[in-house]
Design goal:
mainly alpha
């Protein structure tokens, strides 16, 4: 009996000795991982570097997205400051608002607050396309307009019905200055009926009108 007990004790000692280096190695490995990204840690400690790395990646992604978005937004049209008479005329009709660069800039600023600036950008791109006469330039600009404002994959896709989309797809087989005429008219009508009334009641328009009125009174 004593012999068998000693044998059992030796087996246990040998087993413990074999397990100890593995445990020590695991502990050492865990210690080394403390300063690295520990993606499997469940702690909420501030020193957990995986949180720092993740936060840095997210911040970098947000910054890159913002920079790309800023680069993708064309600058406003160059125009002299609007007069009080011009700003009052904008209230008479949507056509008068859209006739002047200053009116389009003010309206575009308002559309940006409603996250629908792409409607104005699309309309302006179509107007620019109509001024082209070079066939290769027309084809290239038509392709860019399609990718930027018609494609369902674009973040700046404008809202068009299926009939107009079919017309555009047919026209894109042989692009011309008038490839997007139907779509441009539909977006113009949308801005007129939907956004224009809200613009006239917006702080952007009212503040501009008040500022010009005060300057006129002072003069």
């Amino acid at each position: 009996p004593m012999g068998s007990e000693r044998m059992e004790m030796r087996k246990r000692q040998m087993s413990t000795t074999q397990e100890t280096p593995g445990a020590a190695q695991a502990q050492h490995s865990t210690g080394n991982r403390g300063s690295n990204a520990c993606c499997f840690c469940w702690c909420c400690c501030c020193s957990c570097s995986c949180l720092t790395v993740r936060n840095q990646d997210e911040e970098r992604a947000r910054r890159t997205s913002h920079e790309l978005q800023a680069e993708g937004i064309p600058n406003c049209e160059e125009s002299p400051a609007p007069t009080l008479e011009e700003v009052n005329a904008w209230a008479q009709s949507f056509d008068k608002l859209m006739l002047t660069p200053a009116g389009r800039n003010a309206f575009r600023e308002f559309l940006r607050t409603e996250f629908s600036e792409e409607n104005m950008l699309f309309w302006m791109a179509c107007e620019e396309l109509k001024q082209e006469s070079n066939k290769s330039v027309i084809e290239e600009k038509a392709r860019l307009i399609y990718e930027d404002y018609i494609s369902i994959l674009s973040p700046k896709e404008v809202s068009l019905d299926s009939r107009v989309r079919e017309v555009i797809n047919r026209n894109m087989l042989e692009p011309s200055q008038h490839t997007f005429d139907d779509a441009q008219l539909q977006i113009y009508t949308l801005m007129h009926r939907d956004s224009y009334p809200r613009f006239m009641n917006s702080a952007i328009y009212k503040d501009l009108l008040r500022s010009l009125s005060e300057k006129s009174t002072e003069a």
